Amino acid sequence: MNIAQLDTEIISRVLQGEKTLFAELVKKYQNFVFTIAGRYASNREDAEEIAQDVFVKAYKNLADFRGDAKFSTWLYTITSTTCISFLRKKKLAVHSLDQEHVFELADRQDSGFRANQVEQKSRSNMVNQAIQLLSPDDAKIITLFYKGEQSLEEIGSIMGIDPNTVKVKLHRARQRLRNKMEEHFAEEVKNITD
Questions:
Q1: Where are the alpha helices (DSSP H) in 91-146?
Q2: What is the rounded CA–CA span in Å between residue 107 and residue 117?
Q3: Which of 5, 19, 37, 87 could bridge across to 47 with cysteines, CB 3.0–4.6 Å?
Q4: Same domain, 84 and 106
Q5: Whether residue 104 sits in one domain with residue 166
Q6: Residue 163 sits in which domain range?
Q7: What is the percent of the chain where pLDDT is above 90?
Q8: What are the tens digits of pLDDT across the range 132-150?
C-alpha cells in the first residue's frame, strides 16, 4: 500500500469514528506543516501556533478531502491559507538578515548543543535564510519540492501551472538559491564544500 492509499485509509477510518487515528496524520505531516509555517512566521512560537491551527482546520474539514490529490497537497493548501490569514491578523514584522539581533538570537538558540548538531542546524538555518531571500514563487517551489517532497505534478496542481513549467522554474529557483547562498553566505558555503 503506497503513502497516498495509506493516508486515504486513515482518513476513511477517522471519518467512520476512529478519531484517534488522526494523530497518525499529524505525526506524519507535522514537520512538513511546521516547515511551511516557519517560512511565514517570524518566530518558532508563531510557527507552532500556525501548525496547530492547520491541523485543527484539517480535522474539522476532513470530510471535504476528496482524494483527487495526495493528502499532503490538500494539507499544503490549508497551511498556506492559514499562514496568510495569520499574517494578516498579526501584521508581523519581517526581520532583515542585516539586523544583528537576529544572528545573536540564533547564536543563543544554538548554545548547549553538541558541535555537530550546531553545525547541522547552522547549515539548515543558512539554507532557510537563503530561501527567504528568494522571490515568493521560487521559495514556494523549493520548499514544496525539497521539504514537502511534492512531485512536479503535485506542485503544478498547487501552483496552477504545468509540471514541465514547474521543472523549469525549479531549475531556475535552485540556481538563484545557489547564487543567494554564494552571495550572502560565501564563507559558510566554502567551509561546507571544503
A1: 100-110, 115-132, 136-142
A2: 13
A3: 37
A4: no
A5: yes
A6: 100-193
A7: 27
A8: 888 888 888 888 887 777 8
Residues 82, 109, single domain; the answer is: no
What is the reported pTM? 0.55
60 and 8 assigned to the same domain: yes
> Virtual CA dihedral for 99, 104, 109, 112, nearest 10 degrees?
160
Cell 538558540 found at: 109
Summarised one tens digit per residue, pLDDT across range 7-63 is: 889 999 999 999 999 999 999 999 999 988 888 887 889 899 999 999 999 999 999
Q: Which triple of cell numbers denotes residue 45?
A: 512560537
Measuring CA to CA, which residue among 96, 98, 118, 123 is closest to residue 108?
A: 118
The grid coordinates of residue 192 equal 561546507
